[in-house]
Design brief:
Blueprint: H1 2-10, H2 19-50, H3 57-85, H4 95-133
Amino acid sequence: MSGNLIAATAKFQVDALDLSIALQVGRAQFLWISYAEWFCITMIVLGLIWNMRMMPILLMGAVGIFMIQQIGLTPILQARSDQIIAGLSPNHSNVYVLYAILEVMKFICLLIYSSRVLAAPATLTALAATQRKNPAF
């Protein structure tokens, strides 16, 4: 999230970078971020396959959002940045806003999922302690 939302926006605040250069830097940045995301998604899917588990709904949501971003929105944003880099003025578009909204939604899915995963050991420990005190439970 920090690379896609914070760093991406920050480079446009640097007066020394003209729009064309900032867009080229942004494209390289998004390319490397997407490599990292593809790697993480691959590891998650392989881990689930290895453990013969179904993908939790929150992870499915995050993966689905990633696919929409990569397959549906990134090509549109790249074509638009190509036009700007070439000195053209493309029509106004809110695709980047949609991309940012999806990025926040993906972050929320992963945040909720990870908080549940981190809370699971504590829940299991509490359940085990309850069962020791009351075997009928």
